[in-house]
Amino acid sequence: MKYLAAYLLLVQGGNASPSAADIKSVIESVGVEAEESRINELLSSLEGKGSLEEIIAEGQQKFASVPAGGAAVSGGAASGAAAGGEEAAEEEKEEEKEESDDDMGFGLFD
User: Where does it sit, as one GO cellular component term (predicted)?
Assistant: First the structure.
């Protein structure tokens, strides 16, 4: 991740095509040892992909197809509550009674 961050910093700074030496100098400027193999791996993965804006746009399209986990769960719970209506309300009342401190015979601060 640090190598990609250094690459992005260099591109934002005006260097349209950062070299391995450029990335290494940014990494080492903050006191971190840079691995040449990781830098070369990053550069080879970005080679021939077009501009940085195109790569980011392609990645955004991929993320758009990823389902959001929370939306499906909450939607299902809402539809279940609407369908169950009265039964759900009765179950909630029963749960409240079961969780009551009175049923145990003592309270938290007794």
Answer: cytosolic large ribosomal subunit
